Amino acid sequence: MGRKNTRNTKGRIVSAAWKLFYEQGYDNTTVDEIIEQSQTSKGSFYHYFEGKDALLSSLSYLFDEKYEQLMSTLDPEMDSLDKLYYLNRELFTMIENSISLDLLARLYSTQLVTSGEKHLLDHNRLYYRLLRRIVSEGKDKGQLREDLSVNEMVKLYALCERALLYDWCICNGEYSLRDYAAAVLPMFLGSLRAR
After folding, report:
1. Which of the four pLDDT bands, split at 50, 70 and 90, describes residue 117?
2. Do 83 and 22 fall within a single domain?
3. What CA–CA distance (Å, rounded) separates 143 from 4?
4. Domain tally for the chain?
5. With the C-alpha atoms ordered 57, 59, 63, 69, is the resulting torsion angle positive or negative?
6. What is the gyration radius of the CA atoms in the chain, in angstroms?
């Protein structure tokens, strides 16, 4: 019970912060506004985060929440690569519609210079667990190549996703992230399909 309440409190803080960041901008959002929006306390906020800057790395938590919602919508009969394309399309749609380009760029820049934990690379995240499950199922069904390990395929997929996000950021969002990914991911990942 305690773990669920902990997750709910942290999740409320993260969700409130990103909602405010999107609506008001990162620089115009205060910790007090995040606390008020999340209906938590200052003590709870500082229990989980050292300050507003620490919330930048929590974007991966928001992405994982989206993946958790999407898990129940996956068609079990869908091909494993099609499942990955579906997850990507839905996540990138969410990013385009609710995460500001500036915040995404800040997240990437913090992950490049941080000497501590790199949240985007945390293999215990729901994101990586879900990817490993889908790839494992694809290998078991003979849909994916046998000569590459599950971890190698997951790393390749995550690398492609990060590259697309990074490029979108440095191009200032001048194209549709979702549409571009839908066009190029099959080119990058099609070679994973079993022959």
Report:
1. low
2. no
3. 36
4. 2
5. positive
6. 18
